[in-house]
Amino acid sequence: MTQENLTKKVPGEWLLLFNNEIVDHSSSVEEILKIAEEKYPAEKFPQDEIKISKVLSDHISLR
Fold first, then answer.
1. Which residue of 17, 30, 35, 56 shows the fewest CB atoms closer than 10 Å?
2. Who has greater pLDDT, 61 or 27?
3. d(CA 5, CA 25)
4. What integer pLDDT is reported at residue 51 of this predicted model?
């Protein structure tokens, strides 16, 4: 299974982090990217302060 397939098939929640603090979350990566662009426009905030991460559900089967 490729990394892209794993990310799409494995349930979990996307987190938006600013200065290593969770500021928002969503089950849709598109939604979390939209929120990041609205809250933290690139011209006002350095890219290294904003992170997006996926927290996987505990119901994962990798068989």
1. 30
2. 27
3. 21
4. 92
